[in-house]
Structure formats: structure tokens, C-alpha cells
Amino acid sequence: MKDFLKGKIFKVVVCVVALLIGIMIYQAASGGFASFPEAVVGTFVTPIVKASASISDSVAGFFNSLVNAKDIEKENKELRSELAQAYKNLSDYEKAKKENEQLKKVLGIKEKNPDYEMEAATVIGRDSASAFGKFTVNKGSLNNIKLNSPVITEDGLVGVITEVGPTYSVVTTILDPEINVGIFNSRTQETGVVGGSADLYNKGRTKLKMLPRDTALLSGDIIETSGIGGVFPSGILVGTVKSMGAENSGVSMYAEIEPIVDVTKVSDVVIVTEFSEYQPPETEESENTSSEQTEAEE
Amino acid sequence: MRTKKMAKFFKWSLYVLLALVLFCFQNAPVRIGLFQNVLFLLPFAVAFSCYEGIIPSLVMSAVCGLFWDYSAQREFGFCALMLCIICVCVNLVMKYFARPVFVSTFACACAAALVFVVLDFFFFFVLKGYENVGALFVENCVERFFKTAVFSAAMVYVVKKIYDLSPNRAKFDFD
Which residues in chain A touch residue B31, judged by CB atoms under 8 angstroms apart? Predict the structure, then answer.
């Protein structure tokens, strides 16, 4: 024992203990920050601790999944059904949102034209070989859709219903030569007929035919439906005049009309199922006549 | 025996599924770029007729044609009638005059597309007396034919692969 106490090993032990006590006192006085010795030790030990932690997590997870398999499976089923319900709610929300947007458009048209009875519809089919942009919509006779019902959007005229099934209808657009629309220009007070043309179809334009040679129409004029014929209500925008030209016969003129609505790309439309009877467009003569009548009554 | 029946069922299911998918493509309200103005059902029906028998060809072309009639909005029955006649003719040609290899099948599909486009144009544009139909033919019909011809190459390949699933398929040395 005396030999041990006197030997080198004892001295080394005492030095190490003193060092450690010193580090402890120094650490206690450092106020929460890592002291230099601690930082050195930490730098070397931290990667090893991380590796061992990940291994222990994996092992614990493996055994945990075995031990708590039933609970985990139950929780999985509950979460799956909650997720499915969330997806369904999202889908219902999207449908409601789309229906809301459609109805807003219908409301906008209704406010401008309170006499219209309308049905909102969505384009469900447009064949790649279809002639002149014909398309199919998702409303039919069961929704009170009738043959020759006008089809419009909030912007303007699209076409007319030419075939009605129980749950679908076919719309022929104003680019089709078989459709003729009576039109009116408020600036020049001129009337005319707009119909499709085979050579203008690829330009996306339609043709205003049989204009008099001394027509006052100019490029940029806006034309709207006149209501003559009773198929289309009056006052619906059709398009703008893009260019003028002489017919082959040389007797009359024609104008190329660019439709307000791009009928080849429209996705939501409104079908006018009923509207009030034909009302002639207001002209200067009719305004003078009506004011004279009012004065006479007074 | 059971395996053969299952293979046969699987093959016909694939045919039906492919026809439905192509119909959806043809009738989609929105198409992107190159897929506009392409006849999807016609090359499928022709390729089918090249490989299968005359009765299945007749039935498949009639069904595809009726689906097409619903979407094309021509006179109802026109597309079905045209497809039936074309597919029966193609089937007879393959039976008596040619063999259903890729080149001959592709040639038949292209020829069928050309015939259909021309007849469609004649019956629904020329006979109706529209003005300046020449411009429409050049700008629409020619484009439709070429795009359909290009699509036919892929469709012939796909139909051939489905036909190869058949347990009783005819084997040709030059396949």
C-alpha cells in the first residue's frame, strides 16, 4: 500500500482526478455555454451518438411495429377513411364551385334580360371531325331544352340547338353555313343576315351577307341579333366587323364578322329556353313616333 | 384450356378498352395541338379488321361507327355504314390478296382514311352546295388525312400486339 501511494501510478491518478475536478468547476462557472473541453469531447462523440441513435430507432421501430401492429393497423384504417372523406369533400367543393360560377353567369345574363328562361349547360363532346365546330352539351329534353333554342354565353351568341336527346343536345354554331341569324347594327341602323362560310371557318369568322352596295358599315362596328324571325332574342352580341368585300355577283357587299365568343373553345354555355316575343330594335324613327304618341296622349 | 380462355377474354377486354379510350379521345371537348383533327377510331377499326375474322370485324366496326356517329353529328349511321364497308373490304383483301404484316396493314389504314375523308367531304360539304369548299378541303381534310395516317402507324402496332395475345393466332414466317 505504501508502495502504491508512493508510486507513479498514484500520482497519475491524482492528476487525472484533479483535472476532472477542475473541468467540473470550470464547467459550473461557464454559465450554460459549452466549455472548451466539453466542446472538444462533444465534437468527437456527436457523430457516434447520432449513428447509434438511428440504429436504436430502427430497431425500436421494428419491434414497435410488431408489438403495436394492431393499433397501427387500426389507426391506418381510420386515417385512410378520413383521407377518403377529405378527397370527397374536396371533389364536392370543386363541383359546387363550378356550379356557382355557372350560376353567376346565368344570373348576370338574367339581370340584363329578366324575360329569359335559361338552363346552364357544359360542353361534353366535340368530335375531331365535327363540321364547323358543332358540339354536344349535357342538357336535353328532360331539362326542358327545345329544338332551335338559342345558345349564348355572358359575352354573346354561340349558336342554336339543332338536335335534342333526353340528356344531351347538339349545338350548331354560328360558323355553320346552315345557320342564319338576323342582325342589327345600332350605329348605322342596318339589318342583315349572318351565316357561316366554308372559306371563313378556318379563320374562325362568319359572314354578313347581302349588304347593300352603299352600306355604311365599317370595320370595328359591333353587330347584335335583331330578333327578327323569333328564333333569337334581340340584343345579343354576335361579333365585330373585321373587313368588307364585294360578293362574286358584284351586286351586293359582304362583311367578315369575328364572333364575340370563340365557339370552338367555349366550355360552358347557357341555353335560352324561353324569352319574350319579338320586340323591334329601337331606331330614331321609332323613338320620334313614341314621343309624338306620348305628347298626343297628354 | 382455362389458360386459353383467359387469354382470349383478356385480349377482347383490351380491344374493348382501347376502343372506348379512343372514342373518348376523339370526342374530348379540349384537345391539345397535334391531337386536333385526328380520326382515332378509324385506324383502330381497320387494323382490327386486318387481323381478326370477318364477323368480329363487322361487329367492331359497326359499334365503333355508331359511337362515332353520336359524336360526329353527321347523318346518324353514316360513319357506321362507311366503317363497316371499309373494314369488310379490308378483311377480304387481307384474306385473299395480302397478308397482315405491318406494311400492308398500315397501307390499308391510310387508304381507308383517304377514302373516308373524301367521301365525308363529298357528302357533307360538296353535295350541300357550300361556297368555296375547296379551301375547306385543303385546310381541313388534307391535314386530317395526314394526321390520321401518322396515328395509324402507332395503332397498327398496338393492335398487332393485342392480337399476339390470342392463343390461336396465325403464325407467319415473316412476323
Answer: 128
Looking at residue A142, the DSSP 8-state letter turns out to be G
Contacts of B30 in chain A (CB under 8 A): 126, 265, 267
Measure the CA–CA gap between A177 and A159, rounded to whole angstroms: 12
Helix, strand, or coil (residue A134)? coil
Which pLDDT tens digit goes with each residue over A198-234? 888 888 899 998 888 888 888 899 999 988 878 888 8
Question: A146: distance to nearest CA of chain B, Å?
Answer: 18
Inform me whether the C-beta atom of residue A170 falls under 8 Å from chain B C-beta atoms: yes
Question: At residue B172, what is the residue type?
Answer: F
Higher pLDDT, A59 or B24: B24
* pLDDT tens, residue by residue, A106-157: 777 777 777 788 889 998 888 777 778 889 899 999 988 989 999 999 889 9
- How far is C-alpha B45 from the chain's CA centre? 3
B61–chain A Cβ distance below 8 A for any pair: no
Please say if the pLDDT value at position A297 is more than 50: no
Element of type H or E holding A103: helix A69-112
Shortest distance, CA B27 to any CA of chain A (angstroms): 4
Instruction: Tell me if A266 sits within 8 A of A153, measured CB to CB.
Output: yes
Q: Which of residues 18-57 of B touch A (CB under 8 A)?
A: 26-31, 35-40
CB A128 within 8 A of CB B31: yes
Residue B42: which H helix or E strand, with range?
helix B41-51
Position A215: which residue type?
T
A226 touches chain B (CB under 8 A): no
CB pairs under 8 A between A and B: 72
Q: Is B37 close to A199, i.e. CB distance below 8 A? A: no
Task: Check CB contact under 8 Å for A130 and B132.
Answer: no
Taking a C-beta distance cutoff of 8 angstroms, is the pair B82, B65 a contact? yes
> Which tens digit of pLDDT belongs to each residue from B107-153?
999 999 999 999 989 988 888 888 778 888 888 888 889 999 999 99
DSSP state of A34: P
Place of cell 345558345: A151
Closest-CA residue to A177 (of A151, A156, A206): A206
| CATH numbers and ranges of domains, chain A | 113-279 (2.40.10.350)
DSSP B52: S
Residue A130: which of B35, B38, B72 has the nearest Cβ?
Answer: B72
ipTM of the predicted structure? 0.78
